[in-house]
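Readers of this paper often ask what the protein records in our data store actually look like. The remainder of this section carries one protein's record, kept here as part of the documentation.

:::
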Amino acid sequence: MRAIADLGLRCPEDISVASTDNIPGVRGLRPVLTRSEHPIVDMVNESVRLLVDRMKLDGPAEGRTVVFQPTLVVGDSCGPVKVDD
């Protein structure tokens, strides 16, 4: 966002910015950054549980898919899409 300002652009008027997960210091940014947050603690806990379960098996493990839903945190860093005429 600093580079955007250095180029003379404005966020979100000229360009929108969104991020994945928290970045250190993100709460101090202006405008507030739009981002997705992921349940890291839940993901780690599930990974450990799956690993322990797999270690208990004598044979090959059955494949599993685990989906964790991210949360969209809407900030002020994204604006509406502009369509040039």
